[in-house]
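Reader question, answered in our methods column.
A reader sent in the components of a multi-part assembly and asked whether the whole thing could be modeled at once rather than chain by chain. We filled in our standard form and ran it. Here is what they sent:
COMPLEX SIZE: two components
ENTRIES:
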Amino acid sequence: MLTVLSVLWLIPLFYLLVQSFRGEPGAWSPTFFPRTWTLDNYRRLFTETDFPRWYGNTLLIAVVSCAITTLFVLAVSYAFSRIRFPARKPLMNVMLILGMFPGFMSMSAVYFLLKILLPNNYQSHVSLIIVYSAGAALSYYIAKGFFDTVPKSLDEAARMDGASRALVFRRIILPLSKPIIIYTVLINFIAPWCDYIFVSYILSGVPDTGMYTVSLGMFRWLEREMVQQYFTTFCAAAVVVAVPITLLFMWLQKYYVQGVTGGAVKG
Amino acid sequence: MASLSLKHIYKVYDGTTKAVNDFNMEIRDKEFIVFVGPSGCGKSTTLRMIAGLEDISAGELRIDGDIVNDVEPGDRNIAMVFQNYALYPHMTVYENMAFALKTAKVPKDIIHQKVTEAARILGITEYLERKPKALSGGQRQRVALGRAIVRSPKVFLLDEPLSNLDAKLRAAMRAEITRLHERLGTTFIYVTHDQVEAMTMGSRIVVMRGGFVQQIDTPKNLYNHPANLFVAGFIGTPRMNFWPATLRREGNAVHVKLDSGSTLTIDYAILNHVQPRYMDGNHPVIVGVRPDNVIPWRAGMDPAEWARLPVTVTVVEALGGETLVYGHIGVAVPDHDPIGEAAESTQPANSGGKSEAGTPDRITSDTIIIKAPADYEAHRGDVVDAAVSLKKLHLFDRETEASIKPRIPTENVCLCTPEGNALSFAGQRFPLPPALCGVSSPPKRETAPAELSLPADAILLGTGMGRAKVEETELLDADGSPRTLYRLTVGGVTLFALETAPPRYGVGDAVPFDLDFSRIAVESHGIKPLRVENALEGRFTKEKETDDRGRRVYRFYLDMLDQPVSAEESLCEKLFSCKGTAIFRTPLSYRFPPDAVTVTPRQREPDKTALPGRVTRLLDYGRVTYAEIDVGGKTVIAPYDGKAGESRENAAVSLVIDQTKLTVVDREADIVIV
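And here is the structure of the entire assembly that came back:
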């Protein structure tokens, strides 16, 4: 059953892959497999379009906001997990509920806030990084759940050993938290990498199409007047976009399974 | 190397639940202290408060004289071994042990030297490069100890460190920790629920239950002189036999009538520590006797030392080295199932566990455990004779559960004859001080004997008209202050006297003595002891005032019955450290003993250093004169040197209270703050 499902799942992806190698032009192909195979689409992608610039933009935005976001999420989660302070519970609940609303609900508010914050430069990559990282801490819940499973006595032992809270976090908790760090990194890398809504909202008015990110630029190719010319290129671009995420997953997935607290406490 | 002082330590959760109640203890340098009690008794919480991992709700914790209530755990120079070891799993054993030193930026070569030395002591040198998960339980335990050793801490805290090990390893580690204590010469505080660990390791043991300290004493004293029913039931395996009973004294014999019907007769000399009011034949008590002191009866046993009880056997446990015989006193087979009860009643002593050992509802009136030699033969249903050692009986009040045969008798009760202006007892005659002359005469001036209760420390040796012969002296050394207990005979009556000093008199000496009349009581004649504590209700307030240089400053006041008294700085500090600014909102009660008060005639208006009062009555106790002073409608008792004022009664006076002797109580939560 699962095999059948996974095959069904993979069919569109496979279609995308084979179409990216299609030799004949046009948006619609009468056959599933192309009649002529070519690498031209990829060559065109990198030589005749703005795609390399878009790719660079997206990578930059995704990497920077991923780094900031991960730091935010982990720090907030650790604080919620370990430190008891007034209003901790209400704050956690408010954040949890806010986090349940889709981010784009706040779009127009975000737009005006950005205009106040960066009056001359609000249609920029910096804006996007701010948008992606500012609200990230709302998704503290999973990381907090993980920190809750790390024995508190480790913190206590380290504090008895003279370590400050910051040092405990850095030297004891973070090294033990690889799975959750990787999870957080992946989630927060993919989100800006694939985002279309905020990008189209913030960047679509930019005169220089070179400032686009991949999702925005590629979507342009699917517009009625472009799609005939660019469909196969679009498929090639989609494959190239999928590559880093796939590699990232393949590289990091082993940490998911690795036990963390083995040997820490009684066994 | 450190001494610890815990004063009125409380842990309160959510403002209501008290996990630790008024914990007081002085721990000397190099002591091995064990906190023991069933789970939830507050022992771990107390340890964690000492470590700094839990906030102290109220009270004062000192290490080497310094208050450390607000010192970070890392700065207290304390090391702790956790129940689950808490080794850092991503570090090797070496890194684990070096972590604290690295944090403290100790040079690498010194770290290396210390870690290898500690590893050598603990025999873990070959594991230094391994990660904790590659170690066995015992090895991890050693690493946890090593991590504590390398820091050379002042105090070593161990929180149930052996509870995750199997029985054999536990015994070995027990010996190892004891050796380590001797070798390091550091103060150890060890928490366990296992009374065997407590008894074998501790130099002093703190037995706790429900947040209250039950007894602090050496293992031997805990075993031989348990302060209450709980301690008696908790310490010792198998558990002590408990039988409800009443005592009746007839001349030199005391009859112990068990509720199950049997009667033991004991020479009064054995029970002379027991307060006489329990010997009236109807005061409910509980007799406790350890199974070690109940053996099978043999012909020719001295009936003055051994009582013979018929026992119906229900269960026999042959343990190899000895045989435990469970049964019921008497020859009839009881209706209820005794096996479960007997087996259950021994369980808490073995495991600690959650069960409440020693509560009276568990005590069935007649179950008995006999410790017999290994070759002893008995079967279910047999009736055998048990011999109960009369010298080893423990007696408890059935209501308060406190021991009524304490190791240190604090009160003497004997017969006396009040005769108007004098008090005669045991052939000695003492003139009564003026304060008691009036009240001591009963309406009909009868001279019938009455019961005199005389606290042991109200007998003042060295001066006075009384003559006593010293029969026995015992040096008691509790919490570092030497005290001496004298057993005296005065005209055939045994009296106990307590002095806060090393022994001054030898056995056989004739010693003069006097009585502190402010402490004695003859209830039938209306003679009551002087109140030992004054209490005034009030608050703690602040006022913005202008100081000498014209600056605006806050001054703090103890507001006693709406009379402000400036608070001393040290007292303010203590109040703030316990309650923060919430102290201003807390209703307080100020308590102080009479001798904390200095009374002077009032010459001018009160100036916020003293309380104004008016003498209402003088109480002349001969040695000291006290006055009852009316302060805002409340009566305060204080020593009063009458010469200072001319008209002594009704004089307006000022009261200065020594704030170092002041106890401040939170009236809302009933917590001693200072």
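What stands out: The interface with chain B takes residues 151, 153-154, 156-164, 167, 171-172, 175-176, 260-267 of chain A (CB under 8 Å). The radius of gyration of chain A is 23 Å.
Send us your own complexes using the same form.
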